[in-house]
Amino acid sequence: MADVLKAACVQINGAAEIEENLKTVGAYVREAAGRGAKLIVMPENTCHMVRDERKIITSPREKDHPAIPFFSELAKGLGVWLLIGSLAVRTSRTQLANRSFLFSDNGDIAATYDKIHMFDVDLNDDKSYRESRAVQPGKKAVVAKTPWGGLGMSICYDVRFAYLYRDLAKAGANIMAVPAAFTVPTGKAHWEVLLRARAIETGSFVLAPAQIGTHDGGRKTWGHSMIIGPWGEILAAAGTEPGIITADLNMDEVARARQSIPSLKHDKKYKVVTA
Question: Is CB count within 10 Å lower at the N or C end of the chain?
């Protein structure tokens, strides 16, 4: 296993058109590779920030999705690993998968992950979201093998479910990917706290690339992409503009954090009672 990894998170203001996003994201990936990044991670809805009523009719099936050969060729050509935070992939006439893709440096799909937890919420600003209306939730947690060890795959709202990350860590993940399109009110209140908590609880690096700005239909996202160390320290952080952040990840720090506080070994089975 390689000891040090230069990782990059790409922050974008995703448009509604797939081809437009591919052009934008491709330029950022090339820039990140030029800075020496070997693992480059992109946000949720990497290619397709579109309002819900348009998402099904504008989302291709996986076999027809133009982003997949595009990113495969890009990864191979640059010799980097690419995590596409997620693509909207049509699985039937009425349903989608919110699916993350990991491409190896030879252009192969190393792993995929379908978002498990659906963002079905009513926010205080009178905005309502029902991801489950169009998206079929995944049923499998995924740890992908990379030259730097296990990579735990997750998407956005998953970050609120701590047990998922403990399970990923116990299954061998020492890096957690949390690509997101967080809303502004929830991002302002919870984004940093949740990411740092997931890093501290599991003794893992966290890579969290995010969408930023105003998108199709007026939806606004928080941005503030982050790279966090296994002791909970912020190694790199973006603001409210599109761009790239990078950090060098010393994988030995994972072992040190988990040896110092071996909480992953201390889980107990218990019964909850009401008194």
Answer: C
